[in-house]
Here is the input.
Amino acid sequence: MPSKFQLDKAAWQWAETTDPDNVTFDHVRTAYRLNLKPCPLGSCKRNCKGNPLCLNAIGERVWFGKIDDDDWHQIEDPNYERRDDDMFVGLKNLGATCYVNTFLQLWFHNPVIRNALYKFREPDEHVTRDVTAEWSPSSIGGHLQALFALLSLSERRYLDPKDFITHLGLDAGQQQDAQEFSNLFLTLLEDALSRQRDACVRNVIQNQFRGEYAYVTTCNRCGTKSERPSTFYELDLSIKGHKTLDESLKDFLQEEKLEGDNQYMCSSCNSKQNATRKIHLKYLPPVLNLQLLRFVFDKKTGMKKKLNSFIQFPEQIDMTKYLTVNNCAGDPAMPEGVEGNSVTYNLTAVLIHRGPTAYSGHYIAHIRDINSKNWYKFNDEEIEKMKGSKLQLGTEDDPEETGAKQKGRCPKGYHSSRNAYMLVYTLNEEAPCSTDSKAEAQQLLPAHVLDYVIKDNETFENWVSELMLIRDQNIESGKEKQEEIKETYQKLAFDKLEVNEGEWISQKWLNSWLTDPAKAEPIDNKPSLCKHDKLSPAAAMKLKFVNLNGSESLCNRYEGGQRLIGGDSLCMLCVQQQCHVIRTKIKMMEDDKLFGSMTKPNVISGPSYWVGKASFRSWKKMVLEQLGENDDDKRDSTDVEPSVENGLKEKESSGAKEEGQKEKENSITIDETLSKEEESFKFNEDILCEAHDRLDPDMTCRKLVPVEVWRRLKEYFANCPEFAKDDPVCGQCNDQMRNEQQTKEYLRKLAQEQKTALNDLLNDRKRPITLKKPIEVFILNKAFLEELRRFIKEPLKYTPIQNIGNSILICEHGGYLYPQSQGQLELYVNDNFVYTWSSEWDKISQMFNVDYEISIISYEDDDKNLGIVTLPQVCDECVVSRLNQEENARFDYDEAVIFVRKIPKQLQKSAGSSTLNPNESENSKDYDPDFNQHGSKKRGSTSDPLEEPPEKMSKNENGTRKSQRHRKVRGEKEVKVKSSQTLKDFKLQLMKLFSVPPFDQTLLMNGHSLCDDTATLGSLRIAPGSIIMLQADEPAEDLLVLQDMIQVSSGPESGFKGTGLLGNSERIS
Here is the structure.
């Protein structure tokens, strides 16, 4: 198959030699490419874009290949939700309930607790049940029993604990304190089990978790000991400052001295005495829960804070050394029911909290299975079996942390964690019995609970079956659809072309149909129609000509608008029009060559005519517009006969090019504006004057062309304006242009004269700066000076200045508003005015009208003392009023920038007034990054400050000039503020920039502390450009910590208030 370029050329090549009136139907077929041969299906790797009879590579290949069954549906295999063999069941996280899930898994994997819950019986269990009614738990024991039953016997990969969470009244979206939940729930469960008949069930919490210790107080004077026994279900161990579990246990049992105000009232001495107090462990339970106090209350912030320090703990621990020796027998106290002297415990669970703060993060549990001795990680729905038989904390402790927080090496048999908050140790019995959870459940659970589990499994199996059925149906229907599409596609192709047995369909639509038949829209041919409601030749290459055998089924199914069938869909009128365009373009190419050779300046001789330069540059475009190429039926340039189109693009009018070269200096402006102007006038109307439609006297807009060139142009533009070389121009416009030119010359001359006369003033050179010698200086409104500079720079754009308004410098009483300070000899600098010499003022007075003459005179009296006089005199009352208004305006702003510098930690202790005063630190070597270590000067500074431009210089109140340019220093940030915002809001902005919480911020301005958080920045007299010093009282917290602090501080903590754990639910029992 020839290339698309060759096909496009062949489709219209006949038009070069054929008159539009002689176009036949064969020509029309050729223009629509229906003279080509159909491409056999599968013969082209790429679609032949120039052949409407090629249906290859339009998206059909995927339907003729092998389609995977999974592509016919979007349903994941429901068996993925099925519990794997020898794997435990997970628990769904309902938002922030991961802390509940970890404890439920922990208690379930305690076989004693689990069996006791299996034996649990509801108080109303003896009542005869309705066999048709579905049972549902109604008490906390019943809910936990049902959940344990499902964890043991369910076929699901994970369970939804929604009923359990709802029964407790917990907010599933709010994360709570895990230890508090554990304590409250075990208390609630212990109370619920206390009414059970079976003693094993009734006392299971006490038997498993309850230990005993005593607070023993010893009087230092008489040695009397008093003992206060107490029970515990877990030991709360402080980890602050400790690296190992042994250190935390020893700290827990550490002797406490009672002295001073905390003396002990001894009953034997009958008076307060110094004493010691110590905890004595009496009995240890079979399951020892050790709470590592990671979440501590910070008195300074009023919130909980997480300790992220590492703690090392053993896989096996001998508690003998921590037990108190029995005074009578001399033996350590053994757990109840334990024979011998074994007090060795094995690590069976580690509860982990991942996250930087106490108010966010995620809870997971590592639990050792009693039967297999393998470790499992319980992460809500996901359960992972650890490789080998050893505990592997993996990435739970953020191994990417470096520096001081990085954990050290652990001895063999030990583990280290910075996220573990609870350790569970189980007594090491010599012959632990393996238990089968499923067998025990089948044997111990009541019948209605087993039915409850069976029904849940049946529901799950029905759900799996339904989804699998839908999957199979989708696969079957998908394969049927594949065969249907293959059959329809094959019917679209021609074996032998018959024009009247074909139909045009958009290739884009065919692509969309083959991509996704279900999403294919109705067939819309409207964009491809010409103005005669037939197929436009320009749009034909975007469509395919297909067999009616296949298109009928497509149109019947997808419907649509007007159909383009057979030869009646081809437009003879459009083909004739395009033939005319092509022939005209050929003639235009020939004329363009002629114009280029005949419009050279040395070639033009004899009679000639005026042609607009813009018209001559764009005459070909205007011809095409006349041919109708820019209407709604405009074709793509690719559909024009290539040789003609390329010739027109490549061979631009050489005359226009030469003209452009002559006016190179104006080429950019002309090119940018003419593209818009050319759309607003017809050929040669650009040489007409706007007011009278006569020949424009401005010769820059026109050029002369020979009579032969003009004759050929007239063939294209018969009714265009015509002016011979000697035709007169518009007299009125000619006079007006002459007057405008004279005005322009006058303005240029005036600007030059004013520039010469006031050159130093305009360029800000050699200005008066002091009154140390007798002198008179005059004051000039600065706004006038700015207007004068604009006029001199562009005299034809701006109006010349005539008047000087110094009235803004005078008050309503006629007094001067900007006086010198008493005894000040340096001239006062202000943005509202400038100073001029007497010689300059004389010239200004002659050239402009001045409303008020203002001057400052310094003179010497008879005693050679220097005096200063201001004319007119100063109005003291109005000066004070002006200063107050300006001062107030400084502290009223909507968006301004101030600078905040954080004092480095090493300078905070030794920070004196120089460090905290930004004016002095501005030139400090410690802060200025531009300080040159090899010299005393700053980079970029000038040797003479009087040479600084005035807009970069200002004066202090004492008249000393200083730079207004702000030098940025280390540790400084720009902050955009409003005068109406409070200091507290400002501190919150600084927290995001410096990661320092508001309560740790000490802000100083000019050495004074900013303390009132409710005051606005305006009331604190913080002006734009002020420099605030920030001193951080403590090292900055992690950004996530700060975010959590903001969220938590927005409302009081409620904990488990309002939940069933505190007895606020009637259903809890």
Notes: Residues 62 and 572 are 39 Å apart (CA to CA).
